[in-house]
Amino acid sequence: QGYEGLVEGGDNIKQANWLSVSNIIQLGGTVIGSARCKAFTTRAGRLRAARNLVEHSITNLCVIGGDGSLTGADIFRSEWAGLLEELVRDGQISEEVAKKNCRLNIVGLVGSIDNDFCGTDMTIGTDSALHRIMEVIDAITTTAQSHQRTFVLEVMGRHCGYLALVSGLASGADWLFIPESPPEDGWEDLMCERLGE
Protein backbone atom coordinates (compact mmCIF):
# COMPACT_ATOMS: atom_id res chain seq x y z
CA GLN A 1 0.00 0.00 0.00
CA GLY A 2 2.76 2.45 -0.88
CA TYR A 3 3.98 4.67 1.94
CA GLU A 4 1.08 3.49 4.09
CA GLY A 5 2.64 0.03 4.03
CA LEU A 6 6.05 1.44 4.96
CA VAL A 7 4.64 3.34 7.93
CA GLU A 8 2.40 0.52 9.17
CA GLY A 9 4.97 -2.26 8.57
CA GLY A 10 4.01 -5.76 9.70
CA ASP A 11 2.42 -7.87 6.95
CA ASN A 12 2.58 -4.93 4.55
CA ILE A 13 6.27 -5.62 3.98
CA LYS A 14 6.91 -9.03 2.50
CA GLN A 15 9.20 -10.55 -0.07
CA ALA A 16 7.82 -11.01 -3.57
CA ASN A 17 8.28 -14.50 -4.96
CA TRP A 18 7.51 -16.35 -8.17
CA LEU A 19 4.03 -17.29 -7.00
CA SER A 20 3.06 -13.80 -5.80
CA VAL A 21 4.02 -12.13 -9.10
CA SER A 22 2.71 -14.77 -11.52
CA ASN A 23 -0.14 -13.78 -13.85
CA ILE A 24 -0.15 -10.06 -13.02
CA ILE A 25 1.56 -8.50 -16.06
CA GLN A 26 -1.72 -8.06 -17.96
CA LEU A 27 -3.57 -6.43 -15.07
CA GLY A 28 -4.27 -2.68 -15.04
CA GLY A 29 -3.69 -0.73 -11.87
CA THR A 30 -1.40 -2.10 -9.24
CA VAL A 31 -1.60 -5.40 -7.42
CA ILE A 32 0.66 -4.08 -4.65
CA GLY A 33 -1.94 -1.48 -3.76
CA SER A 34 -1.81 2.26 -3.55
CA ALA A 35 -2.86 4.60 -0.77
CA ARG A 36 -2.55 8.22 0.19
CA CYS A 37 -0.62 8.38 3.44
CA LYS A 38 -0.98 11.41 5.67
CA ALA A 39 1.40 9.94 8.23
CA PHE A 40 4.26 9.86 5.71
CA THR A 41 3.95 13.63 5.23
CA THR A 42 5.13 14.03 8.86
CA ARG A 43 8.61 13.37 10.22
CA ALA A 44 7.12 11.01 12.83
CA GLY A 45 5.56 8.92 10.04
CA ARG A 46 8.80 8.83 8.09
CA LEU A 47 10.63 7.81 11.29
CA ARG A 48 8.27 4.81 11.63
CA ALA A 49 8.83 3.96 7.96
CA ALA A 50 12.61 4.11 8.43
CA ARG A 51 12.35 1.82 11.46
CA ASN A 52 10.30 -0.71 9.49
CA LEU A 53 12.73 -0.69 6.57
CA VAL A 54 15.78 -1.10 8.81
CA GLU A 55 14.05 -3.98 10.58
CA HIS A 56 13.95 -5.79 7.21
CA SER A 57 17.43 -4.55 6.13
CA ILE A 58 15.85 -2.77 3.16
CA THR A 59 17.96 0.09 1.83
CA ASN A 60 16.75 0.14 -1.78
CA LEU A 61 13.35 1.52 -2.73
CA CYS A 62 11.65 1.67 -6.10
CA VAL A 63 9.01 4.38 -5.85
CA ILE A 64 6.35 4.39 -8.55
CA GLY A 65 4.01 7.36 -8.48
CA GLY A 66 3.29 10.93 -9.35
CA ASP A 67 4.33 14.24 -7.89
CA GLY A 68 3.38 13.42 -4.28
CA SER A 69 5.10 10.03 -4.23
CA LEU A 70 8.31 11.26 -5.83
CA THR A 71 8.46 14.38 -3.64
CA GLY A 72 7.97 12.15 -0.59
CA ALA A 73 10.79 9.88 -1.76
CA ASP A 74 13.14 12.84 -2.13
CA ILE A 75 12.33 14.11 1.37
CA PHE A 76 12.74 10.60 2.82
CA ARG A 77 16.13 10.22 1.13
CA SER A 78 17.36 13.60 2.35
CA GLU A 79 16.28 12.85 5.95
CA TRP A 80 17.52 9.24 6.05
CA ALA A 81 20.75 9.86 8.00
CA GLY A 82 18.91 12.02 10.54
CA LEU A 83 16.14 9.46 10.94
CA LEU A 84 18.67 6.72 11.68
CA GLU A 85 20.44 8.97 14.20
CA GLU A 86 17.12 9.57 15.94
CA LEU A 87 16.35 5.83 16.02
CA VAL A 88 19.77 5.17 17.60
CA ARG A 89 19.27 8.00 20.10
CA ASP A 90 15.87 6.60 21.10
CA GLY A 91 17.34 3.11 21.52
CA GLN A 92 15.19 1.60 18.75
CA ILE A 93 18.20 0.44 16.73
CA SER A 94 21.89 -0.05 17.51
CA GLU A 95 24.81 1.93 16.09
CA GLU A 96 25.86 -1.19 14.21
CA VAL A 97 22.44 -1.53 12.53
CA ALA A 98 22.48 2.17 11.63
CA LYS A 99 25.92 1.83 10.02
CA LYS A 100 24.81 -1.26 8.11
CA ASN A 101 21.80 0.62 6.72
CA CYS A 102 23.41 4.07 6.42
CA ARG A 103 22.56 4.64 2.76
CA LEU A 104 19.09 4.70 1.23
CA ASN A 105 19.01 4.21 -2.55
CA ILE A 106 15.87 5.27 -4.37
CA VAL A 107 14.80 4.78 -7.97
CA GLY A 108 11.80 6.89 -8.94
CA LEU A 109 9.47 5.80 -11.74
CA VAL A 110 6.73 8.12 -12.91
CA GLY A 111 3.44 6.28 -12.52
CA SER A 112 0.82 8.69 -13.77
CA ILE A 113 -1.79 8.32 -16.48
CA ASP A 114 -1.44 12.07 -17.19
CA ASN A 115 1.79 11.60 -19.20
CA ASP A 116 2.92 15.00 -17.97
CA PHE A 117 6.50 14.34 -16.92
CA CYS A 118 9.33 15.88 -18.91
CA GLY A 119 12.04 13.54 -20.16
CA THR A 120 9.96 10.40 -20.67
CA ASP A 121 8.02 9.34 -23.76
CA MET A 122 5.19 7.74 -21.85
CA THR A 123 4.63 7.42 -18.13
CA ILE A 124 3.53 4.17 -16.50
CA GLY A 125 -0.25 3.91 -16.71
CA THR A 126 -0.78 6.14 -19.75
CA ASP A 127 -0.91 3.35 -22.31
CA SER A 128 -3.39 1.19 -20.37
CA ALA A 129 -5.55 4.26 -19.65
CA LEU A 130 -5.56 5.16 -23.34
CA HIS A 131 -6.55 1.62 -24.33
CA ARG A 132 -9.39 1.67 -21.79
CA ILE A 133 -10.62 5.02 -23.12
CA MET A 134 -10.62 3.69 -26.69
CA GLU A 135 -12.62 0.61 -25.63
CA VAL A 136 -15.24 2.89 -24.07
CA ILE A 137 -15.31 5.21 -27.09
CA ASP A 138 -15.83 2.24 -29.43
CA ALA A 139 -18.77 1.06 -27.32
CA ILE A 140 -20.32 4.53 -27.06
CA THR A 141 -19.87 5.25 -30.77
CA THR A 142 -22.02 2.26 -31.71
CA THR A 143 -24.80 3.47 -29.42
CA ALA A 144 -24.46 7.08 -30.62
CA GLN A 145 -24.74 6.01 -34.27
CA SER A 146 -27.75 3.76 -33.73
CA HIS A 147 -29.62 6.45 -31.76
CA GLN A 148 -28.27 9.38 -33.79
CA ARG A 149 -27.08 11.06 -30.61
CA THR A 150 -24.08 13.05 -29.53
CA PHE A 151 -22.15 11.88 -26.49
CA VAL A 152 -19.81 13.82 -24.26
CA LEU A 153 -16.91 11.86 -22.79
CA GLU A 154 -14.69 13.23 -20.05
CA VAL A 155 -11.32 11.60 -19.46
CA MET A 156 -8.84 11.98 -16.63
CA GLY A 157 -5.58 13.87 -16.95
CA ARG A 158 -5.77 16.71 -14.45
CA HIS A 159 -3.92 19.66 -16.03
CA CYS A 160 -2.63 17.64 -18.97
CA GLY A 161 -4.74 17.07 -22.09
CA TYR A 162 -2.64 14.23 -23.50
CA LEU A 163 -5.23 11.47 -23.00
CA ALA A 164 -8.04 13.66 -24.32
CA LEU A 165 -6.03 14.77 -27.35
CA VAL A 166 -4.73 11.35 -28.36
CA SER A 167 -8.03 9.55 -27.79
CA GLY A 168 -9.83 12.36 -29.66
CA LEU A 169 -7.48 11.95 -32.61
CA ALA A 170 -7.72 8.15 -32.54
CA SER A 171 -11.52 8.16 -32.41
CA GLY A 172 -12.18 11.01 -34.82
CA ALA A 173 -13.93 13.13 -32.17
CA ASP A 174 -15.87 16.11 -33.52
CA TRP A 175 -14.96 18.47 -30.70
CA LEU A 176 -12.24 18.46 -28.07
CA PHE A 177 -11.42 20.47 -24.97
CA ILE A 178 -7.95 20.32 -23.43
CA PRO A 179 -6.58 22.44 -20.58
CA GLU A 180 -3.56 23.58 -22.60
CA SER A 181 -5.82 25.30 -25.13
CA PRO A 182 -8.95 26.74 -23.48
CA PRO A 183 -11.88 27.42 -25.84
CA GLU A 184 -12.25 30.88 -27.33
CA ASP A 185 -15.37 33.00 -26.91
CA GLY A 186 -18.25 31.80 -29.07
CA TRP A 187 -17.12 28.17 -29.05
CA GLU A 188 -20.67 27.00 -28.35
CA ASP A 189 -21.95 28.24 -31.72
CA LEU A 190 -18.99 26.79 -33.57
CA MET A 191 -19.44 23.43 -31.88
CA CYS A 192 -23.18 23.30 -32.66
CA GLU A 193 -22.44 24.20 -36.28
CA ARG A 194 -19.82 21.43 -36.52
CA LEU A 195 -22.14 18.84 -34.95
CA GLY A 196 -24.96 19.96 -37.22
CA GLU A 197 -22.78 19.23 -40.23
UniProtKB/TrEMBL annotation:
Phosphofructokinase domain location: 1-184
Cofactor entry: Mg(2+)
InterPro entries (alphabetical): ATP_PFK (IPR022953), Phosphofructokinase_dom (IPR000023), PKF_sf (IPR035966)
Protein known as: PFKAL protein
GO biological process: canonical glycolysis; fructose 1,6-bisphosphate metabolic process; fructose 6-phosphate metabolic process
Keyword match Metal-binding: yes
Transferase keyword on record: yes
Catalytic activity, as annotated: beta-D-fructose 6-phosphate + ATP = beta-D-fructose 1,6-bisphosphate + ADP + H(+)
Any one GO molecular function term: identical protein binding
Keywords: Cytoplasm, Glycolysis, Kinase, Magnesium, Metal-binding, Transferase
Pathway(s) per entry: Carbohydrate degradation; glycolysis; D-glyceraldehyde 3-phosphate and glycerone phosphate from D-glucose: step 3/4
Pfam hit, one: PFK
GO CC terms, sorted: 6-phosphofructokinase complex; membrane
Cited PANTHER family: ATP-DEPENDENT 6-PHOSPHOFRUCTOKINASE, LIVER TYPE, PHOSPHOFRUCTOKINASE
